[in-house]
Amino acid sequence: MLKICVCVSGGGTNLQAIMDAIDAGTITNTKIVRVISNNKNAFALERAKSKGVDAVAVSPKDYETRELFNEALLAAVKESEADLVVLAGFLVVLPEKMIQEYKGKIINIHPSLIPSFCGTGYYGLRVHEAALERGVKVTGATVHFVDEGTDTGPIILQKAVEVLSGDDAKTLQQRVMEQAEWKILPQAINMIANGTL
User: Fold this and answer.
1) Among this protein's residues, is 110 annotated catalytic?
2) Set 34, 47, 110, 128: catalytic member
């Protein structure tokens, strides 16, 4: 049984996609042992609690230094005894110590086809705004392993999504979530849980 810890900063739609996929049996051999958010008001925490999943807020606002926050975050992950850490819209730069301790055991979902529109500063709506500014006809999402760089780890899965002529950043974001993120993130977790990766 693969034990996963899901880290989120906001609404938790990717978390919901994971929980739904576990319920539907499209993710097998997997249990969410903890949800961690850096935002005490994240709706993702409510989503977790409603499913009886342990939900914890570790906010940088509660710590005097970034180092203390990083230690608390790592402690919260370790405490969960998770085999895999899933970053599902987690807007925190992970401490290097955590990346080293969980090498090959942290995955992230990014809302573009890496290497396009990724790296420092590319998150949330900014990714989709940049795609529209560039005039690309196809965008998508990528699930990748996390390493010391920003969006630089080995790619696990990618899925393309068409950009439509009337799109703004919000409509594009929604389509990328529905057509790509909510499909490939559960798929990647299932592959890892069942040793097919």
Assistant:
1) yes
2) 110
